[in-house]
Amino acid sequence: MDGETVGKLGEFGVIGRITKGLPLAPAVSVGPGDDAAVFLVNGSSVTSVDMLVEGVHFRRDWVPAEALGRRAVAVAAADIEAMGAYQLGLLVGLSVPEDIPVSWIDDLAKGIRAECDASGAALLGGDLTRSKDVVISVTVLGETRGAQPVLRSGARVGDVVAFRGRLGWSAGGLAVLSRGFRSPRALVEAYQSPQVPYGAGAEARLAGATSMIDVSDGLVADLGHIASESEVCIDIDTGRFDIPDPLHAVAAATGADPMHFILTGGEDHALVATFPLGSVPPEWQVIGVVTDGEAGVLVDGAPHSGAGGWDHFRR
Amino acid sequence: MDGETVGKLGEFGVIGRITKGLPLAPAVSVGPGDDAAVFLVNGSSVTSVDMLVEGVHFRRDWVPAEALGRRAVAVAAADIEAMGAYQLGLLVGLSVPEDIPVSWIDDLAKGIRAECDASGAALLGGDLTRSKDVVISVTVLGETRGAQPVLRSGARVGDVVAFRGRLGWSAGGLAVLSRGFRSPRALVEAYQSPQVPYGAGAEARLAGATSMIDVSDGLVADLGHIASESEVCIDIDTGRFDIPDPLHAVAAATGADPMHFILTGGEDHALVATFPLGSVPPEWQVIGVVTDGEAGVLVDGAPHSGAGGWDHFRR
After folding, report:
1. Spatial separation of the C-alpha atoms in residues B18 and B110, rounded to whole Å
2. Are B269 and B194 in contact (CB under 8 A)?
């Protein structure tokens, strides 16, 4: 198949390559190949969609296809975690230029399957079409198994704020690539596909988390959603953060403050949650408190200067 | 808001406009605005995704935003019908150029909501991002309410083939627009947004349909999926079709055979199903039989000449 393009192989040929030999989870009675997939849900159903657009979320020369497949699944699956729910399955809408090599699609599918395995979700179906730039739309489906989901609106004054996962790594990786470098390798790989702490959402819920969100736009921006939905003030203490070595390295090389990456860098999809005092699970790092001040986010007691996060239409 | 663009209003401003005042169905406990939506499913869950790409599936000057919103929902919702299932909800992934007017988004959202109302689905959530061309990805969710879904693989020798909905109208409308005309108006509107026969999927299942599909790529092409999955031969009798007046008109004007539109035109999302003899519901039109010939589709007993339908990577 060397040099074969999607345009030559055709829509149905490519879909066949992606779905061939796909294992079906016990809950799935109809997998890809019919008009729709059919599966059982334990408790309430939980769902969210995320789109990745070439030239906006990634460049093909900066993110290999397999890493991109992993990323597309991870960014969507993180939303199921952020509800404290369990991963069930996902659908992938994919549009690609017709001159894209079939080997690129194969690698993308390999990454999608690998991240499905990591998250515990089944690939339920998809759509494949043509476009000028690559667009990947992943819809994730989860289940509550009878538990109450953890919303953004439940933070209470006196709670502590804690996170699990990585903060600033993806932004650090992007800073590295933007300057034409390929190291620190750990940051570049974090940018290419984030490491979502699968299982940590349910872990936080079981520990009594009162609110939760995944950090997609940036820590300050995403805590801002919790603050406004919960009508509380969240005060982050920068002294609480351990700054990872690779972030020190990239900060030194770029003349930036490593805390800038941690506070405003998005796309790592760490989970950040509020817990009653004394309820924080061991692997979570406490970074602040919930107070009765004006609804919003403070950093070391003061308003954060700068945008704090990402808006797709405001650079 | 005259002249306001999405780029100026920002991602969260636009999302707020789309979701403001959105009614929530009783089954939905968490609607748009948190990390994910939460809702109850009666029976098994049924799901599918469809993408519409500007320049491939539509041109903005040929499809007004409101009709496009209706179309995006309709093409996806038709897959729930084709399983004989019930509409429940949907998610919309939308990427748009930053210079797009907010009024265009408002009209698109109006169309999405109108088609949600027509289909009985709730708008559960979405994602909004930036791209060069408009891309809309709709994931639909349905429920079986305890019934067995109708698959592509169940057609049996001796069944009759019947459809409900429209065939060839959308292709006729596209032929009209491609030649620079705007009438017959009924065809142009059918191209802009198809009229899915909501409820007909469950109707067919209750009548005993053995297999079913919605006509997205073209009648011959989509019956080909039933034929190959069911390992049967499907013989279509062209004498069975009533050719609608607007198709006569456009065929005469373009020098085409109106049966060409009916047999190969996609995107009307009629439902076509196989039924045991004597079980066809009144509003369904019988157009053929299932025989034990070689798996495939015959037209008046002979192989159909020509492609028969649409492949996104083969024009």
Report:
1. 8
2. yes
Q: Which chain B positions have a beta carbon within 8 Å of A11's beta carbon?
A: 311-314
CATH 3.30.1330.10 intervals, chain A: 6-143
Q: Residues spanned by CATH 3.90.650.10 within chain B? A: 160-303
Could you give the CA distance from residue B129 to residue B125 in angstroms, rounded to a whole number?
14
Q: How far is A149 from chain B (nearest CA, A)?
A: 8
Instruction: Show residues of chain B in contact with A124, CB under 8 Å.
Output: 47
Rounded Cα distance, B147 and B42, in Å:
10
In CATH terms, A160-303 corresponds, of 1.10.3720.10, 3.90.650.10, 1.10.510.10, 3.40.50.720, to: 3.90.650.10
Q: Which of B14, B47, B135 sits opposite A135 (nearest CB)?
A: B135
- Is B56–A129 a contact, with Cβ atoms under 8 angstroms apart? yes
Residue B261, SS3 per DSSP: helix
Residues whose CB falls within 8 Å of the CB of residue B76, separated by 6 or more in sequence, listed in order: B48, B49, B50, B90, B138, B139, B140
Closest CB to B130 among A50, A53, A139: A53
pLDDT per position as a tens digit, A161-205: 999 999 999 999 999 999 999 999 999 999 999 999 999 999 999
- In this prediction, residue A1 carries a pLDDT of 47
Mean pLDDT for chain A overall: 93
Q: Is the pLDDT confidence value at A315 over 70?
A: no
The class (CATH top level) of B6-143 is alpha beta
ipTM (interface predicted TM): 0.94
Question: How far A145 CA sits from the closest chain B CA (Å)?
Answer: 11
Q: Quick one: what percent of chain A has pLDDT higher than 70?
A: 96
Q: What is the pLDDT of residue A308?
A: 60
pLDDT band for position B314 (cuts 50, 70, 90): low
- Residue among A14, A144, A229 minimizing CB distance to B38: A144
